[in-house]
Amino acid sequence: MLFALALLPLALLLSVGCAYKDISDESLQKLPGPGNDFNIKTGALLAPILRPRVSGTEGNAAVRQHFIDFFHASLPEWRLELHNSSSTTPVSNGKEVPFVNLIATRDPPGVHEGDVSRLALVAHYDSKYTPEGFIGATDSAAPCAMIMHVARSLDAALTRKWRSADMDDFDVEHKGLQILFLDGEEAFKSWTDDDSLYGARALAGDWESTFHTASSIYRTPLDSIELFLLLDLLGSARPRVPSYFKTTHWAYKHMAKAEARLRNMGLMKSSPNHASKVAKRENKKLRVEPEFLPEGNKPDGAFIGGFVQDDHVPFMARGVEVLHMIPSPFPRVWHEMTDDGEHLDTDTVEDWAKLVMAFTAEWMELEGHLDFKAEKRKESTEKSEFIIP
Ligand SMILES: *[C@@H]1O[C@H](CO)[C@@H](O)[C@H](O)[C@H]1NC(C)=O
Ligand SMILES: [Zn+2]
After folding, report:
1. Does residue 9 register a pLDDT over 80?
2. How far does the signal peptide extend, from start to end residue (predicted)?
3. Which pick of 41, 50, 94, 380 has the fewest CB atoms within 10 Å?
4. Chain centroid to CA 180: how far?
5. CA 352 → CA 92, 134, 237, 265, 291, distances in Å?
6. Which residue's C-alpha comes closest to atom 8 of ligand 1?
7. What gap in Å lies between CA 353 and CA 30, rounded to an integer?
């Protein structure tokens, strides 16, 4: 008890120390798009994920290899780990099915592993067992591709920042970025506590008892996760994501603010007021601007505790703070054969990537280190001049 009390002031100090700095309009303007990489047939990031990838199958291993190849080729500074577990499932006839989570981590150089607090970008990469041939483009192929694009776009800025950093700035030097591509999210038969979240349950359970060395600031890899940002069911047109959790509403508000700024600057391609859309229609009058995150002003009393069962559950049960980017209602294609590449709204996929990139850049305090010259991909050059009324 005494020990716990003694620790309290340090914990408080650390959470207060968590800075979050808006990036400039100029940086928002320059956030790189994916070029052709989200193309559903030929896109280097997305196309290889758009195949059945049920846990334990060849497709699942091939998609995992796609991630590994990507990190080796594009993000060599990231530490890769595979977290393995196995379990029987209701359809495996007593056989153990392997579940393999991919964990990629980029920490500041020279900092002890137990002293880094991380923003975790999370999505599941397995696909649903039924219907046969199910692709799961929003569930969660597109979110995986978004995370890959965000990581590679900000990687050089992290390097620059840490190279230039004032080593005395605790906050700057102790923030890392982590990617969790989780396996076995989907139920094989029907969703129960035992038939779902196979990879997430195994990882959260193992990390709970994986202890950093005694003098570490954070006790376990779970404690090191400052925010678990879970993307799921994203990529259909006109999503609406509520703020699910009171304790992370402040982070939701940051994301909503980034969205509003991107919209005001005409940078959201899926907006009916984007220059490319307005140019294509007769009536040039501005339309109502949609919002992916409409609950920035949700009052405290409105959090009634409803949430969606997903990979965050075993983490949240162990005290990890979660920001869940999943639309409500779910996309119309949810768990249907039509959740395929053809039914993605590519503009919306790009917009989500841009929004998550802006949020991540702000979280990691990358203003002043963003320089996207090397990131120039072939982009349509159209830019919107419209300001949202
Ligand atoms: C985990 O599983 C992968 C894929 O089956 C395998 O390549 C790897 O060697 C395993 N790692 C460990 C530590 O068992
Ligand atoms: Zn699903």
Report:
1. no
2. 1-19
3. 94
4. 9
5. 36, 23, 11, 16, 11
6. 82
7. 13
Q: How far apart are CA 64 and CA 15, in angstroms?
A: 34
Number of structural domains in the chain: 1
Which residue carries 């193309």 as its tokens? 39
d(CA 126, CA 56): 9
Q: Which residue has the higher pLDDT, 302 or 80?
A: 80
User: Considering the domain boundaries, does residue 375 fall inside one?
Assistant: no
185 is catalytic: yes
Order of strands, sheet of 322-325, starting from the edge strand that comes earlier in the sequence = 79-87, 97-106, 175-182, 117-124, 225-231, 322-325
What is the extent of the structural domain holding 302? 2-370
Task: Tell me whether residue 388 is in a domain.
Answer: no
Q: What is the CA radius of gyration of the chain?
A: 21
Interacting residues of 281 by C-beta distance below 8 A, sequence separation 6+: none
- 177 closest CA partner among 225, 145, 135: 225
Q: How far is the CA of 82 from the centre of ligand 1 (A)?
A: 7
Q: Which of 183, 232, 340, 375 is catalytic?
A: 232
Q: What is the mean pLDDT of residues 356-383?
A: 78
Q: How many beta carbons lie within 10 A of that of residue 95, not counting itself?
A: 10
User: Residue 271 domain-assigned?
Assistant: yes
> Would you say the CB of residue 84 lies under 6 angstroms from ligand 1?
yes
Which burial class, exposed, middle or buried, applies to 300 when counting CB atoms under 10 A from its CB (0-12, 13-18, 19+)? exposed
Ligand nearest to the CA of 103: 1
Give pLDDT, residue 53.
Answer: 98
389 within some domain: no
Residues of the chain with pLDDT > 70, as a percent, come to: 89
Query: Is any ligand 1 atom within 6 A of the Cβ of residue 82?
Result: yes
Residue 328: partners with Cβ closer than 8 Å, 6 or more residues away: 240, 241, 242, 308
